[in-house]
Design goal:
The chain has 469 residues and is an alpha/beta fold. The chain has 12 helices and 19 strands. It has helices at residues 54-58, 128-131, 142-164, 214-220, 261-282, 284-294, 298-307, 315-324, 341-350, 404-414, 421-428, 441-449, and strands at 3-10, 16-22, 29-31, 36-41, 50-51, 67-70, 72-78, 82-88, 96-101, 168-169, 175-176, 208-209, 226-234, 247-256, 312-314, 356-362, 380-388, 392-399, 434-440. Residues 148-459 form the Aminoacyl-transfer RNA synthetases class-II family profile domain.
Length: 469
Amino acid sequence: MLQAGAKTLSVSRGISLGIRQHCNKTPGRLTGSRGISLVSIRRVWDKTPGQLTVSGAVSGEQLGAKVKVQGWVRSVRAQKANLFLHVNDGSSLQSLQVVASSELNDPLLTFGSAVEDFPFKIKERHSLEYIRQFPHLRCRTNAFSSLLRIRSEATTAFHSYFKENGFVQIHTPVITSNDCEGAGELFQVEPSGPDNEEEENFFSVPAFLSVSGQLHLEVMSGAFSRVYSFGPTFRAENSQSRRHLAEFYMVEAEVSFTQSLEDLTKVMEDMFRSATEHVLAHCAEDVDLFHKHVTPGHRVTVEAMLKKRFPTITYSEAIDILNRSSENFAFPTDWGCDLQTEHEKYLVKHCGNVPVFVTDYPYDLKPFYARDNQDHSEHTAAAVDLLVPGVGELCGGSLREERLDLLRARLEEAGLEDTYSWYLDLRRFGSVPHGGFGLGFERYLQCILGVDNIKDVIPFPRFSHSCLL
């Protein structure tokens, strides 16, 4: 029998298992009788082996080479003749199984290093709500470790899409003097300590944690035709609902030389499809865990989103659909009212339970930078939202007002002309038609996984009255 060298599985408290692997045709199962001989327990190797992840081991990589696998013992089961160990290093949902002689059983080889009162039981399936109580430990569960691998791969997917489509990444500032959304829900940044005078601003002007990188991206869109950012944003919204976080991540993009909203919706739809197909291809096992055990049946919804084109309706058509429905909505559906989550979810179901674009919102509902459609009968702005199943609004964007006279009039009306004089300069010194959008990254993960609470798709959720760790 061909021998494939030696491996080491490093488990809690510094213990290492020396293993010899023979030609094993069953990935993920390393056995003493069919492929693995557990030959010793020792702390130091005579020779330095190559490193191999559990993911690589279960897929059969580097057979015939001397390698070292390091991870944590997830479970130990001793029988009369054999000892069963499951080892995981976080690289894969599947653990590496070692079957060895029971003579090598060691009291130190236990799940969690024999820690008493550990809140997660290896043979139990815990709900996301339950593990949310332990933000410092939930990464050790199968569900949340899968979520974190999916989140990591989704991050890669968005970056890949933008790189492949000619976008330049911009690192927009976290600290800013701008309120992009105009909602006033800002965290003000002030230095702490006895040496700082209360009446003096550290930056000479009031500074805040950013709610959006859009305005900074617009600066860059005067030199680059396609730019994007991916980073944290902050909202001081006093809410503990399942939809809101005080800190979350946004994917934002600006596109120059736009002709219509279709130039934006095409990018939004292509980006959504590209990222989702990437995640499904590279995290199939982790996504299946959610679609089978956390949100059964959601895979059908995801597949439908990828098969069908996203329909487009105007805001006026959306209001008409809502008013013709038999639903008893909690919020009004008059023309001019902002769409609430209940309205957004109904519109998605009405359109076949696939993502739907809603365009041309009332002008007064949108920020100063949204382009005026100058349709005097209704007066709308060239704005668009992408609504998705289970979530509601996922993306929001607009064409930007590039006409200096109209933009100045809007800022004067809001009393913001001095504050945004630099923004007027972007038009005064030469501008082109352009537009952009932002996508809530956590909401995207909720959408493709079917997770109901946004706090379950971010490593360390921050929200009103909660900032653990």
